[in-house]
Design brief:
single chain, 239 residues, 2,3-Dihydroxybiphenyl 1,2-Dioxygenase, domain 1
Length: 239
């Protein structure tokens, strides 16, 4: 039977904080219950999420995961990021909650992830993409290393392991094309922010900016550069 709808019910410790976070993403609260148990519903167009509160719940131990397939994840990410900047004054990229920008992860389709205040992962991917399609044109060299690192950091949340993979790749492919090297260094800067390592973050950003690029290459990598610069600037200022 067609037309079925599946709605996730996700735990959190403080319901108000989770509602505020989802409202920053452009969701609206459509239902709220305080007794006999804390419960709320937030919705954004066709995406609906139910939340329930548990006083002794630890978001750091959450294993909640939701896959959300959308027509185009990139503009949705931009909308989410804008709302988070407006509400919180910065783009949360480390800890709980956080948002990870769209990126191809090795063996997966392109997309981005949001970790909500309950530690639940919402994994947004392009509607219709499949694992088989993602593997048709595999990356090579340093570009493949970045995808492997992103699989650790962006898909699994293992930022330390991602940095280790990336550093080994940068050492292994010192003569990688400039654009690939810049992208790898900018991801290294982002990982440094997530790990609260100012030295890694600032040195990687500086190294990326020092790589000579053509005007076309610089325009191509500008979104990555702007994102990394924003995160490193926030880390350096204590934001």
């Amino acid at each position: 039977m067609a037309g079925e709808v599946t709605i996730p019910i996700l735990p959190c410790r403080v319901l108000d904080g989770s509602i505020t976070f989802y409202e920053a993403l452009g969701f609206r609260q459509t239902y709220r219950q305080r007794r006999p148990n804390p419960y709320a519903v937030v919705a954004r167009e066709d995406i609906q999420i139910h939340l329930f509160g548990l006083d002794d719940f630890d978001p750091a131990t959450s294993t909640g995961n939701v896959i959300v397939a959308v027509p185009d994840p990139d503009p949705l990410y931009e909308s989410f990021a804008s709302g988070l900047r407006t509400t919180f004054g910065r783009l949360p990229s480390a800890g709980i909650p956080r948002i990870l920008r769209p990126r191809k992860r090795f063996g997966t389709v392109r997309g981005f992830s949001v970790v909500d205040p309950g530690g639940n992962w919402l994994r947004f991917s392009k509607l219709g993409d499949t694992e088989e399609e993602a593997k048709k044109e595999p990356a090579a060299g340093l570009a493949r290393v970045v995808e492997n690192a992103a699989r650790q950091g962006d898909a699994r949340g293992h930022d330390g392991a991602a940095l280790e993979v990336l550093d080994k790749g940068l050492a292994r492919f010192p003569d990688a094309p400039p654009l690939e090297r810049v992208r790898a260094l900018l991801y290294r800067a982002e990982l440094g922010v997530r790990l609260d390592d100012r030295n890694v973050a600032t040195s990687a950003l500086a190294a990326a900016c020092a790589v000579p690029l053509s005007d076309q290459e610089r325009a191509t990598v500008e979104p990555d550069l702007s994102h990394a610069t924003e995160l490193v600037t926030g880390l350096s200022s204590g934001g």
